[in-house]
């Protein structure tokens, strides 16, 4: 069946939580947090469904100092649904819908550790499809995380976006 990309609802919170838990590389939050994200950040989030089952989730927000940017905070796809391009489709749907709603997104932003090659490929592909340059710059250093021993999270910034349609529009 063809994947369905849609705006999440409050009721999707539990399913989204399960998708994130299936991605050990991600920092999981509570079911409550995902219910809130699905409801309160629904315009900057999407879920992907296959046969009525949530298999992917993207959540972002518009930084108050850069309201025409979308900061992509978390991307999760069930292992069985990887390789279908769902993450890119979900992000592109947010970009396309923002333009249709008269509030276009001109830049995509995310922090991605250097070793996270899958996410780096995702954002490089998005930059190509959206006709926008991609820049990487220091952002959150390893020292910021203190004793946690977390790698640095450079900022990936795509934009300005000239092709608002991408492959999803």
From TrEMBL:
Taxonomic source organism: Desulfarculus baarsii (strain ATCC 33931 / DSM 2075 / LMG 7858 / VKM B-1802 / 2st14)
Molecular function as annotated in GO: diaminobutyrate acetyltransferase activity
Pathway info: Amine and polyamine biosynthesis; ectoine biosynthesis; L-ectoine from L-aspartate 4-semialdehyde: step 2/3
Boundaries of every N-acetyltransferase domain copy: 3-153
Keyword Metal-binding: no
Signal peptide bounds: none
Record family assignment: Belongs to the acetyltransferase family. EctA subfamily.
Protein name: L-2,4-diaminobutyric acid acetyltransferase
SUPFAM superfamilies for the chain: Acyl-CoA N-acyltransferases (Nat) (SSF55729)
Keywords: Acyltransferase, Transferase
Entry's EC annotation: 2.3.1.178
Enzyme class label: transferase
One Pfam short name: Acetyltransf_1
One BP annotation, GO: ectoine biosynthetic process
